[in-house]
Design goal:
- By secondary structure, this protein is α+β, with helices and mostly antiparallel strands.
């Protein structure tokens, strides 16, 4: 893991087109601004984890080939 120190108003660049800026610092709360292409998803980690869990659950509940065959026969 890369650890960088930044102050309010400073940024880091990821790749050629993602910029993360420190917008505000109030106590232990840091506000970040993220400038990235709209085609790139940006989520808080806890939301990303929920999306991944929902995707895994959806994959487990996919119909089997046998179930799909029965539906075709209807």
């Amino acid at each position: 893991m890369l650890i960088l120190s930044r102050r309010k108003g400073e940024s880091i660049i990821i790749g050629d087109n993602i910029e993360i800026s420190v917008v505000d610092v109030q106590g232990d709360i840091i506000k970040l601004g993220i400038n990235a292409p709209r085609s790139l998803s940006v989520h808080r980690k806890e939301i990303y984890d929920e999306i991944q869990a929902a995707n895994r659950e959806a994959l487990q509940n996919l119909p089997t080939a046998e179930q799909l065959k029965k539906l075709q026969d209807i």
